[in-house]
Amino acid sequence: MKEHQIEDYEINASTMFLRPVIYGSKVYSQVFEVEDHFLAPFKPLDIIKNSCDYFGVDYESRKRGTRQLTGYNRKNPIVIEPTNHIFFFPTTSPSSPECIWISQEHFKKHRRSGANQSLITFHNNQSYLFPVSYSTIETQMLRTAFLKTTLLQRIEIKGRKLFYLTQGPKNLKASESPYEYAGECLKDEE
């Protein structure tokens, strides 16, 4: 994989994680996708915010929504776009310059690699070392899974209600034959 610089970036279904890097006197982002990685002239949180905007809901609204759905108040995972299962979680406080954002969808497994280090393997079988404790990764994965499950269940329930309202109740008929029932011969009355 060759790293090249890009001018603009929105998170998409291929984005695995965003990591801050010092580039000159500024904080940039290394953006890792399934088959490539880039250097973007924005902080990871700025890319998260811009991506939320790109998909039609601002970051602060997404953060409030996560709080309402889960009750979490710190290090909240963020849904960037629910229909494509784009959910990211921060490794520290999102305002921290060291914060890395990881995609829950691409996460395969993790293991300890020191006191405050974790080796994360993604579904494309690439592994990266993160300066984050095993328990923090575990907690953030569970929080993100809870957010995803809660939100997708609500979307599904609303979809079923909408389907029922638009289709209306159907005239139902019994599935068995109307021939012999309890010893009597019945006729089909229509």
Description of the molecule:
The chain has one domain. It is built from 3 helices and 12 strands, in the order E-E-E-E-H-H-E-E-E-E-E-E-H-E-E. The chain has helices at about 45-55, 60-70, 135-165, and strands at about 5, 15-25, 25-35, 35-40, 80, 85-90, 100-105, 105-110, 120, 125-130, 180, 185. The strands form 3 sheets. A 7-stranded mixed β-sheet has the order 1-4-3-2-7-6-5, sandwiched between helices. A 3-stranded antiparallel β-sheet has the order 8-9-10, with no helix packed on it. It has a two-stranded antiparallel ribbon with strand order 11-12. The longest helix is centred in the C-terminal third of the chain and has 34 residues, at about 135-165.
Furnish the topology, listing elements before pairings.
Blueprint: E1 3-5, E2 15-23, E3 26-33, E4 37-40, H1 44-54, H2 59-70, E5 78-81, E6 86-90, E7 101-103, E8 107-112, E9 118-122, E10 127-130, H3 134-167, E11 180-181, E12 184-185
Parallel strand pairs: 1-4
Antiparallel strand pairs: 2-3, 2-7, 3-4, 5-6, 6-7, 8-9, 9-10, 11-12
Defining key terms:
single chain; 190 residues; alpha+beta; seven-stranded mixed β-sheet; three-stranded antiparallel β-sheet
How many angstroms separate the termini? Answer: 71 Å
Major sheet attributes:
7 strands, mixed
Cα gyration radius (Å): 24 Å
Any idea how many domains? 1
Low-confidence stretches: none
- The number of helical segments is 3
